[in-house]
Amino acid sequence: MPIMRAAFVSRFDDANPLAALAVGERPEPDHPGEDWVTVQVRASSLNHHDLWSLRGVGLAEAQLPMILGCDAVGVDPEGNEVVVYPVVPTPGDPRGVSILSEHFPGTFAERVAVPRPNLVPLPDGLSPTDAACLPTAWLTAWRMLTTKGRVEDADAVLVQGAGGGVATAAVALAVAMGKRVYATSRDAGKRDRIAALGATAVEPGARLPERVDVVIETVGAATFDHSLKSAAPMARIVVSGATAGHEPKVNLRRVFAMQLEILGTSMGTPGELYDLLAFCADRQVRPVVDSVIPFSGVEEAFARLHGGEAFGKVVLDHTA
């Protein structure tokens, strides 16, 4: 059986997820359907989803070993450079879809199999290592701002918990769209780096100089009251995560009196990924990259993400 080198979940370890990471040989990816193709991976990037998988969230023992990774840029069978859209139709999943590395092997390997409609052309001007940052965190931020947040009608945006992948992407994108952007972080160093992106960086809970039209919320209970208080009349509070608690107290009187919209979302569509790639290429927006590490150093990449020191995306270069 043909084999390839990959990084995968070998077992689950909630206390020490890095101990569940294995690197070694795995079989070449299968094609579950006639429209599936194999992509030679050139670059990929890490997400917190990968750490949750090592803890056993979203996976069952029967699915192990599972190759990790959602994001990738590579070369299709015809030699075209493509960005992999990671959401795959999955009839057995209650959602009807899944993300690569949940039911189907992921991108932290020499090759990955996906449906051909999941391949989006890599635009001129975007490098593989930059574009590999976009299909999950940056796509989620793009959808939060555009489709859900209707940011074209907004003047000001608040991003909670900047420093994480989605939040940092939202700051960079909203600044590139010409919006006034406020961003919170508990870490003074991260506030300095957020300010360098063009946002006004503030401490969590700080009073803003104005109410905002769109709030990007990925933190949850720790920041949600601040999100409500910072929202202008008819503002949109868009939620795609709850890293600091998923059951916040919500002042419903503020919600209906201010006519606020609380909107949930995750990921995006292939068309939205195409639009995001075009926007980044046309506006010369580049993802915030913490580090680019050769695929041979994948354990180092996971350790950096797990350690909480990363600012922006941790990228794997599969050609190094």
Keywords:
320 residues; alpha/beta; seven-stranded mixed β-sheet; six-stranded parallel β-sheet
Overall description:
It is a single chain. By secondary structure, the chain is an alpha/beta fold. It has helices at 48-55, 128-131, 134-148, 165-176, 188-196, 224-230, 252-257, 270-283, 298-307; strands at residues 3-9, 21-27, 36-45, 66-67, 71-75, 81-84, 87-89, 97-99, 111-115, 119-121, 156-159, 180-184, 200-202, 212-217, 231-239, 261-264, 289-294, 313-317. Helix 9 links the parallel strand 17 and strand 18 (313-317). The two termini are 26 Å apart.
Number of helices: 9
- Global geometry: globular
How much of the sequence lies in strands comes to 25-35%
Overall radius of gyration: 19 Å
Arithmetic mean pLDDT: 96
Unreliable stretches, pLDDT < 50, 5 or more residues?
none
Tally of DSSP β-strands:
18
**What is the chain-wise order of helices and strands?**
EEEHEEEEEEEHHEHEHEEHEHEHEHE
Structural class: alpha/beta
Q: What is the oligomer described by this structure?
A: single chain
In helices, the fraction of residues equals 25-40%
Most strands sheet: 7 strands, mixed
Distance between the termini: 26 Å
